[in-house]
Amino acid sequence: MTQIKICGITNSKDASVVAGCGADAVGFIFHPRSSRYVAPEVVKDIIKELPEDITTVGVFVNLDVKEVKETVAFCGLNMVQLHGQESPAFCREFPRSQVIKAFAPRNEDDLAQLRHYAVKAILIDAYDPMLHGGTGEKANWKMAVKVKETHPLILAGGLSLANIPEAITAVSPDAVDINSGVEIAPGRKDHAKIKQIIELVHSLGENKVEIFGR
Q: Which of 70, 109, 142, 156 is a good FRET partner for 127, with 20 to 30 A between their CA atoms?
């Protein structure tokens, strides 16, 4: 079974639906420039209402270690997803089991950097020089396949009901990360699509690595 994380949650209603439909993880974006940014105070209240069996992930972009740690503690997050230019040393500031490092590789040299990262999983997203995720564009699937040689893999980048079966067949990720593919507008989720995509993803793949879960 392939695991699934629904990212870009900004309100309690969407979070409740995601949890109720059986998602493995829910993601909150703490990057102020993102159209899906959500304040720590809001996230803290949302997490209080979620069941304990769903993994809560905070997405951070190029913040200092102290601020990330303070936000994790304040909100009660289970994992961090580092979506900027964070170094291997930065990642080691957190327990390996709690870190996802995002990359948007363009070539083999980019992929070679991964061996230095001691993290729970690598998330592969679409490359955009101006944006850190949430582009709605397809990631480089050929590059993503190679990640599995060194790390558990989360595939992101423009995934939706239309292309999820093809993506899982081609890449065989351990988990997928869905954001814009289940939205009405940035930060507002389509509840019917959430239910459909979670059921679909859980019916596909035979991966044994569990990235999410406590």
A: 70
- Backbone phi, then psi, for 200, in 5-degree steps? -65, -50
Q: Which is the catalytic residue, given 7, 14, 24, 177? A: 7
Q: How far apart are alpha carbons 14 and 191 in whole angstroms?
A: 7
Choosing from 14, 24, 75, 125, which is the catalytic residue?
A: 125
d(CA 59, CA 171): 23
Helix (H) or strand (E) holding 6: strand 3-6
For 99-128, give one letter per residue: b (16+ CB within 10 A) or e.
Answer: bbbbbbbeeeeebeebeebebbbbbbbbbe
Question: So what's the pLDDT on residue 132?
Answer: 47
Q: Is 125 a catalytic residue?
A: yes
Helix or strand holding residue 71 (H, E): helix 65-75
Classify domain 3-202 at the CATH topology level.
TIM Barrel (3.20.20)
Pairing mode, if any, of strands 121-124 and 153-155? parallel
Q: Is the pTM of this model over 0.90?
A: yes
Residue 183: strand, helix, or coil: strand
In which element (H, E) is residue 26 found? strand 25-29
Per-residue pLDDT tens over the stretch 127-172: 554 454 455 578 999 999 999 999 999 999 999 999 999 999 999 9
Q: Would you kindly state where each structural domain of the chain is located, as residue ranges?
A: 3-202
